[in-house]
User: What shape does this take?
Amino acid sequence: METTRQNKISRLLQKELSEIFLNETRKMPGTLVSVSVVRISPDLSIAKAYLSIFPSEKAQDTIEAVNASSREIRYQLAQRVRFQLRKMPELHFYLDDSLDYIENIDNLLKK
Assistant: This one.
């Protein structure tokens, strides 16, 4: 069960990460990255961000690129939330494949 503080911080991080990825994906036409959910640990030291990437063919390459540049993303995020958070949590990025799973279920049900 997440506390109110965890929920507030995860919503803040999700909003700011979405804006960062929106600005970065403008440089890469044809790719859309959205932040599905951010889960933060009880001690507020680790944030797990789940990314939904379209098209799904580029998903693995994009998630590897994001993980490679996670320090830069953490710095940009820290600059944006420096007045709301005292300590910036460590960021871990994961692929959210729930949309692909839903599409697969729909295709199976249509058959």
